[in-house]
């Protein structure tokens, strides 16, 4: 009976999925959970991150980071224009993330590689690019649609947010979904977030050429592959070429943004 119920649940999930087109024209499989559920999962994961990790009390750095977040998110399409919440964590690893529901987390260590406001915008816009490209939705949908539900069961067991064997199955399911929210992105998604993020930073009035400088700094700090958190990203040398070529094409959008008065002065 349990196996029949599981099969029925998986069949329902698969039937509920839909084919969508990503911002770069890539076909996506999404819809295993609703946007409201995604937003809730993002909010819960963000709350746990803030509960587990010390936040920076540096007022200047907080204001700087929030200024960049606000400038970037102001250029999002209307459906993504909800109030974005940001947190600066006192952590020396050069990391950042964005979650459904309008959440952005930045580690103080990012300032080692993002050495001006344009480079910080490149990081933040890239992470927000994952959200607006529905990569979390895509990842959860893919995992929940695996054969016989084995993938989601594995996520239940292995999720860092698991509540223990004594917890109810429904609670464990929620923990697994949070774990999926935070899993690394694949290379297709990383490349797509590069495209979306660079377009977004240019429209916000940040120099898209600085995305190249950011990546050069990452290589300098982390070696040939950059910091460990970028291990799923495209090959760094190829990425430099792609970012540079794209920046050239984005200069008119950047210059138009500046003429329109979008000239962020964050720090």
Automatic annotation (TrEMBL):
GO terms for molecular function: metal ion binding; metalloendopeptidase activity. Belongs to the peptidase M48 family. Residues 1-18 form the signal peptide. Gene3D superfamilies: Metalloproteases ('zincins'), catalytic domain. The keyword Protease applies. This is Peptidase. The keyword Zinc applies. Keywords: Hydrolase, Metal-binding, Metalloprotease, Protease, Signal, Zinc. Binds 1 zinc ion per subunit. CDD domains: M48C_Oma1_like. It comes from Cognatilysobacter bugurensis. GO terms for cellular component: membrane. Its cofactor is Zn(2+). GO terms for biological process: proteolysis involved in protein catabolic process. Residues 60-246 form the Peptidase M48 domain.
């Amino acid at each position: 009976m349990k196996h029949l119920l599981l099969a029925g649940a998986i069949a329902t999930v698969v039937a509920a999925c839909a084919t969508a087109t990503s911002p770069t024209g890539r076909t996506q499989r999404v819809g295993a959970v609703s946007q409201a559920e995604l937003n809730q999962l993002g909010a819960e994961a963000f709350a746990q991150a803030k509960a587990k990790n010390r936040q920076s009390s540096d007022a200047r750095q907080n204001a700087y980071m929030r200024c960049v977040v606000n400038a970037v998110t102001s250029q999002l399409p209307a459906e993504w224009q909800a109030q974005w919440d940001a947190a600066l964590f006192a952590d020396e690893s050069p990391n950042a993330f964005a979650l459904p529901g309008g959440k952005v987390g930045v580690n103080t260590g990012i300032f080692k590689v993002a050495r001006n406001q344009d480079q910080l915008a490149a990081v933040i816009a890239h992470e927000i690019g994952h959200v607006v490209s529905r990569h979390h939705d895509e990842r959860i949908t893919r995992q929940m649609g695996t054969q016989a539900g084995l993938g989601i069961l594995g996520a239940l067991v292995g999720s860092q947010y698991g509540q223990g064997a004594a917890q109810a199955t429904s609670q464990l399911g929620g923990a697994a979904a949070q774990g999926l929210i935070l899993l690394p992105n694949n290379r297709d998604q990383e490349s797509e977030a590069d495209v979306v993020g660079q377009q977004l930073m240019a429209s916000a009035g940040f120099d898209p050429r600085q995305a190249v400088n950011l990546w050069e700094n990452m290589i300098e700090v982390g070696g040939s592959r950059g910091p460990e958190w970028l291990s799923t990203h495209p090959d760094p040398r190829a990425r430099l070429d792609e970012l540079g070529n794209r920046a050239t094409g984005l200069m008119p959008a950047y210059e138009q943004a500046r003429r329109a008065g979008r000239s962020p002065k964050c720090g």
